Structure formats: C-alpha cells, structure tokens
Amino acid sequence: MPDHDAPLSLLPLLDGAGVYGFAKSYRSEGPIPGGATPPYFFRGSGTALVTDGGDLRASRDSVMLSEELELVLVLSCTGTGALEVAGYTFGNDLTDLGRFRADPSGIMHAKAPAAAVCSSWWRGDPPVSLDVGVTVRRAAGGSQRYEARIGTDHLTLTRDRVEEAVAGFAGVDLFRTVLLFTGAPRGLAWAGQPVTSGDTVVLEVDRLGPVLANRVRCDG
User: Fold this and answer.
1) CB–CB of 66/195 below 8 Å?
2) Which one-letter DSSP state was computed for residue 39?
3) Which of 10, 133, 175, 189 supports an S-S bond with 18, CB 3.0-4.6 Å?
4) How far apart, in whole angstroms, are the C-alpha atoms of residue 84 and residue 162?
5) At 26, is the pLDDT very low, low, confident or very high (cuts 50, 70, 90)?
6) With the C-alpha atoms ordered 86, 92, 94, 100, is the resulting torsion angle positive or negative?
7) pLDDT tens, 41-72?
8) Three-class SS of residue 199?
9) Nearest-angstrom CA–CA distance, 56 and 216
C-alpha cells in the first residue's frame, strides 16, 4: 500500500454535501443477484455528520448497536456536471443491527441519528485494500479490539460502477459533493457484543494511526 497523500480538511466540503451509503456491498456478504447495484440509502446533509471527538447519538431504544468503520469515497462534481471519485476519507456509520435484521428493507430505520466522519480527506485513488484496527473502549471498563481490511478490492462494485451507480441516486443532482459510505466488515455486534451507551469507538488506519474516535450516547 503506497503512502497516503497529504491530508486536506474535509470541513469546507461538508456544507452542501450529500451523504449516501451502500448496504451489503462487501464481497463477504455474497454476490448481488444479477450483478445489480447494492441497496443504497440517503443519510442527509454533510453538516449533520459528527467529526472526530464528537458524540454519536443513538436511540435509547436501540436493540443491538454495531460500529461500522468504513472507507468513505469523496465524489466531486466535474465541469461537465458528472460526479467522479476525487479521494477518500473514513467514517463510522453506527447502525442498529437488531432492527436491520428484523427488517432489512427498512435500513434507514436501523441507522443511528448521527454518523461520524474523519475531519480530513485524502485526494487520489482510494485504497484497494487497507489494514485497519478498531477498538471499542467500554464505558464499564476494559476494551476490545479487532483488525480488518477495507478498500475497493473488497466491494462488489468497481470504481467506474460506483460512479455510475451514484449518478442514479435520487436527489444526487442537488449536491456538488457526495460522501459515500461504502460499507463495513462485520464488527463486534455480529459476535453478540454490541456497542452500548458510553462506549468510545476508535479507528486506526495503516500509515495514518488513529483517525476517528467517538463516544456513543443513547439518549434520543
């Protein structure tokens, strides 16, 4: 994996950015029937995202919260009006796995009110396969850690197909920048150890170190 380029501030891009995400987009989830595009959802405006150090709010009625540490693609509008991948960053798309399992078609009902994103982004080709470490510091004491890989090689879509798919998203023409949460490897909740209120989730990235840390608050 080559070194990352110098980081740029993501904050100026958040105002006016649209936030979307793929569901079940990782190869480990199995192929999409007929090679179709994975299901997608609209998360809202970039200004609603939480950055490093902010609290991730979730409902006090959450069933089984799952941290989802993801590669986030930054797509920018070109002079022709097309959206092209300009770079990448990282995010945590906190999801209620319990609700998603109960009704996969209602994915937006499983999403926590807030998602987190790194305050920096990196211009250039997104990584094809990147080692990451995820640590959950438990409010009750102790911590758990696992390692995974994220990147375009682990997705069911190529970069060209991602750009083609995003062009067809509802409402995408309203934004000059799109932040696309690409999906996540399975986290601790899949092993019956969900994130709970007061826990802090930390993402470390190869050659970058810690890039994102957020405390979860179930008070909504």
Assistant:
1) yes
2) P
3) 175
4) 9
5) confident
6) positive
7) 899 999 999 999 999 999 888 889 999 999 99
8) coil
9) 5
Rounded CA-CA distance 45/131 in Å is 29
Longest dimension (CA), the chain: 53
pLDDT of residue 106: 67
Would you say the C-alpha torsion 31, 36, 41, 47 has a positive or negative sign? Answer: positive
| Domains contained in the chain, CATH given | 8-218 (3.90.850.10)
Q: How is residue 61 written in tokens?
A: 């009625």
Residue 121's Cβ-side half-sphere holds a number of Cα atoms within 13 Å equal to 27
CA dist 32 and 36 (Å) reads 6
Is residue 69 within 8 Å of 90, Cβ to Cβ?
A: yes
Distance in Å from the first CA to the final CA of the chain: 40
Residue 1 pLDDT > 60: no
Structure tokens at 63: 């069933």
* DSSP designation for 56: E
Q: What is the pTM of this model?
A: 0.91
Share of the chain above pLDDT 70, in %: 91
* Per-residue DSSP letter, 1: -
Query: Of 43, 36, 69, which is closest to residue 156 (Cα–Cα)?
Result: 36
Span 90-144, pLDDT tens digits: 999 998 888 877 777 667 667 767 899 999 999 999 999 999 999 999 999 999 9
Smallest Cα–Cα separation from 32: which of 42, 41, 22? Answer: 22
